[in-house]
Write a structure and sequence with these properties.
With 248 residues, the protein is of the alpha/beta class. It folds into two domains: 167 residues, Rossmann fold; 51 residues, Probable gtpase engc, domain 3 (Ribonucleotide Reductase Protein R1, domain 1). The protein has six helices and eight strands.
Amino acid sequence: MERKNYISRKAIKQRGAGQRGERLEQIIASNIDNLFVIASIERPQFNNRFLDRLLVIGESSHINTVIVINKIDIDSEELAELWKELYEEVGYEVLLTSVKENIGIENLHQKIIGNKNIFWGQSGVGKSSLLNKLFPDLDLKTSDVSDYSNKGKHTTVTSNMISLGNNTFVIDTPGIREIDPYGISKENLGHYFKDFTPFINNCKFNTCTHNHEPGCAIIANVENENITVERYESYLNMLETIEEGINF
């Protein structure tokens, strides 16, 4: 069928010793209505830089993206509300959930019905557990987070698209440890940060990477606290992994 949209990631095809790996596009799913980026506040610990990478992919694919911060029942430092506030100010819808205490489940359920949805996130954040809570008949395999590494185990090993009736579909994906967006250059990365959008056209240079250039409106608005330091540092971290002048 014709694709109205799709999400993908950068994959590396390894070559022989001393040879540079070939950059490939790995398509995860297409024709998606909602991308639910699942994170956990603990076990594994909330990682805003990893989250921002998935948000950039959602933005570049023009897919409605919703942030789900799971496991808030073990939020001993009460950080979930702070992250929720930060990302809502950026412009994202943020849901706080707990499978054990049945928090936020009905709200999440309402957003899934009648749509084609994908759950995406790190290993161990509770994607399959949330789906089991939402739709008990699924009985998806789950496992505990490793006590040794405090990281998730790869319980889901392939992406599965599940029909739930009423024109409702959910794609459960394997947890991911590392990810880079595909097809994004240094010069256009900033266009996929929602909080940069009001200021990005005010930079002195239209090829500004918002890193060191004079007259950069993004840097000025970080200093003026219109853009949070957390988001800007996340942007710089992502910028380092994108090769200069290459559009994959």
